[in-house]
Task: inverse folding
């Protein structure tokens, strides 16, 4: 029976339902509750009057194109031939559900009551079969966060947490600061353990090691730093070329103002990797849960799989094939191909750092991506300060990090579109320091202050305990589910049932297997489409095609939740914006009267432009034109257009004479005067004499609309 049910024909589905008294197979159960009784009768009439059934091929031809919409609502697969003839394969279940036989005659005399309202009950009564409701519950969905697999970069990207000062161009590179010889920066004061002399360097002139001055006094100092000498000395120490562009930071934001060694930045730039604020190198990647895998899915040969500790598949059979399904260890992870490539570069950086800076032998010795398999990493969620040790065992084409539910739960995640970071463990052990973290509130978050070496299932979030680990759901599950019984009353084995056993980590089962965990789209359309207009058009096109979606409501939500707040926000920012020097990047709350930068004599420009305010205005008008948008939202768009036109009436946003306030005021006042002249509002006396206040509101609304 299981073999028949796995891939059954329409005729067999009807036979099995009759012989065993079971509901009709789901493949041939249609959405009868989605059509009215009148549509049901219309379908019967069309099949009887214009249908011709080929019993040998189980195909029916219906010469009534008018029932196509009904078939679509039922989700009956069909095709059109000869422009007006509907052809349906595996037609026996549909014909039987209409109460007809192979000759398209009534099976039994069964008149349809005029008061009949339930189409599904009618189909059960006329067919003599048990037909379940196809879609008893519908769950709405929306697009969440697009998948991500990308290196973590600060803004702007940085190679080393070392200050290069403010008084040079915007590149923030050590090379651009080096020609000035000396830059003024704020650094932490240190004290020599041997002679007690204060210094900003890790080693004193006497050769002794310095330590941070840990007292309540101000232990930072603004000093002139010979960055050119430090940079050239660092280059010689690691034996690297000056051609490598190393990007630093303008200033330090940590409490003690402790910088990184320039050598680390040189080596990071060489390997094209970037530092995060805590001194580590991160890779951000979307979470997905995984309990089982096939060696071929993660691109790892069998001998390597066995080296990693996997000896049997999930059925305890020896591993001899790449097609066998193997249970994943709780702290093993499978990352994207791009993540693997980046980790190879990070490993190369760490080997260079150990060898050239610390004088130690290299650790990883990686030649290609497969050598990174088996490397330990730190998994960390942005809102926590506790990392979890994991191990890379393979790569997938998808832009995700597959890991055991225990691993994700230990990071305080539940895989609902979250993205976490992956860091090589050695990088964290060598380069992480609390001294680099910001002094501001929340500065300790998203940093591996503590590390979980071994996951205890009892200590992770309860969501992971509710995962069912049964191989097959019992019949009782489906019977109680059809009655919407409480899930707690259904006896299915869960992770929680294993917590107090000897081995709560393994022997998890699953109900359905897949051909490939990376099957399907590898990149969502939201990432493929670059322009916002293209993304919006695709979204609205899907809304038009989806019967369950009101496209007008979708369009209005785009306006209310995205476009209008964006336009209003940019208008507000424009009126309170800062001004910037194009040469030294210095910001000014108000433009200098000299019209040039007092620091470097560079030109002063705006930081918010007209284009950023108007970027969604045309798209908003297109939505108003193509969809039925409420009057309130429509008027909000028109009022925003009025405000923008009044602000940029001369079609320029330059600040040539810094008389921007008066230039803005005149068109605004003019617009308000025009508004008062053209709109004659209903006065209080009219409102009191009116029979219905809603009429007056309508009058005002119409007059306002005519003006707009």
Result:
């Amino acid at each position: 029976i299981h073999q028949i049910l796995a891939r059954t024909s329409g005729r067999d589905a009807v036979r099995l339902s009759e012989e065993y008294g079971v509901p009709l197979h789901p493949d041939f159960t249609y959405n009868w509750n989605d059509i009215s009784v009148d549509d049901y009768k219309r379908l019967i009439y069309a099949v009887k009057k214009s249908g011709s059934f080929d019993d040998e091929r189980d195909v029916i031809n219906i010469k009534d194109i008018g029932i196509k919409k009904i078939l679509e609502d039922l989700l009956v697969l069909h095709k059109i031939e000869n422009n007006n003839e509907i052809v349906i394969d595996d037609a026996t279940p549909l014909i039987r559900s209409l109460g007809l036989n192979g000759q398209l005659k009534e099976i039994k005399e069964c008149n349809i009551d005029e008061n009949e309202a339930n189409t599904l009950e009618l189909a059960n009564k006329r067919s003599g079969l048990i037909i379940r409701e196809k879609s008893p519950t519908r769950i709405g969905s929306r697009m969440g966060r697009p998948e991500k697999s990308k290196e973590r970069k600060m803004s702007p990207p940085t190679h080393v947490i070392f200050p290069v000062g403010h008084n040079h161009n915007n590149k923030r590179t050590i090379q651009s600061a080096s020609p000035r010889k000396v830059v003024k920066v704020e650094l932490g004061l240190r004290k020599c353990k041997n002679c007690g002399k204060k210094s900003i360097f890790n080693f004193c002139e006497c050769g002794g090691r310095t330590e941070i001055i840990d007292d309540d006094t101000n232990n930072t100092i603004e000093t002139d730093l010979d960055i050119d000498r430090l940079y050239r000395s660092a280059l010689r120490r690691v034996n690297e070329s000056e051609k490598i562009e190393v990007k630093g930071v303008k200033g330090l934001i940590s409490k003690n103002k402790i910088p990184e060694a320039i050598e680390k930045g040189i080596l990071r730039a060489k390997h094209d990797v970037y530092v995060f604020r805590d001194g580590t190198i991160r890779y951000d990647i979307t979470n997905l849960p995984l309990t089982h895998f096939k060696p071929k899915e993660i691109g790892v040969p069998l001998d390597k799989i066995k080296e990693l500790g996997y000896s049997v598949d999930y059925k305890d059979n020896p591993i001899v094939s790449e097609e066998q399904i193997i249970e994943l260890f709780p702290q093993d992870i499978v990352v994207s191909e791009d993540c693997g490539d980046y980790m190879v570069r990070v490993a190369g950086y760490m080997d260079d750092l150990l060898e050239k800076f610390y004088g130690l032998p290299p650790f990883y010795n990686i030649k290609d991506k497969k050598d990174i398999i088996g490397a330990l990493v730190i998994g960390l969620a942005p809102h926590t300060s506790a990392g979890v040790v994991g191990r890379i065992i393979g790569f997938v084409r998808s832009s995700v990090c597959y890991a055991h539910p225990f691993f994700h739960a230990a990071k305080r995640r539940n895989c609902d579109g979250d993205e976490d970071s992956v860091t090589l463990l050695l990088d964290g052990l060598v380069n992480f320091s609390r001294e680099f973290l910001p002094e501001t509130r929340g500065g300790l978050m998203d940093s591996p202050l503590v590390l979980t070496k071994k996951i205890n299932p009892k200590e992770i979030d309860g969501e992971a305990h509710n995962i069912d680990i049964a191989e097959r759901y019992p019949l009782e599950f489906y019977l109680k589910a059809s009655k919407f019984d409480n899930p707690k009353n259904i006896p299915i084995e869960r992770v929680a049932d294993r917590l107090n056993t000897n081995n709560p980590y393994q022997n998890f089962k699953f109900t359905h297997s897949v051909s490939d965990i990376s099957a399907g789209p590898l990149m969502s359309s939201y990432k493929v489409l670059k322009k916002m207009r293209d993304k919006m058009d695709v979204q609205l096109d899907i809304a038009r095609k989806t019967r369950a979606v009101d496209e007008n409501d979708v369009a209005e939500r785009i306006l209310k939740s995205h476009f209008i707040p964006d336009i209003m926000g940019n208008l507000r920012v424009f009126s309170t914006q800062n001004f910037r020097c194009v040469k030294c990047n210095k910001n000014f709350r108000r433009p200098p009267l000299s019209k040039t930068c007092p620091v470097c004599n560079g030109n002063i420009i705006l930081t918010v432009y007209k284009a950023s305010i108007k970027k969604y205005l045309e798209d908003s008008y297109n939505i108003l034109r193509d969809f039925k948008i409420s009057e309130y939202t429509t008027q909000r768009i028109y009022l925003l257009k009025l405000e923008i036109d009044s602000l940029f009436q001369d079609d320029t946003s330059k600040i040539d004479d810094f008389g921007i306030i008066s230039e803005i005021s005149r068109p605004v006042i003019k617009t308000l005067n025009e508004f008062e002249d053209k709109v004659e509002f209903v006065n209080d006396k009219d409102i009191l004499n009116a029979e219905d206040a809603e009429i007056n509101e309508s009058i005002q609304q119409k007059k306002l609309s005519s003006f707009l």
In short: The chain is about 35% helix and 15% strand. Confidence is low (pLDDT under 50) at residues 651-666, 678-697, 699-708. Residues 74 and 576 are 57 Å apart (CA to CA).
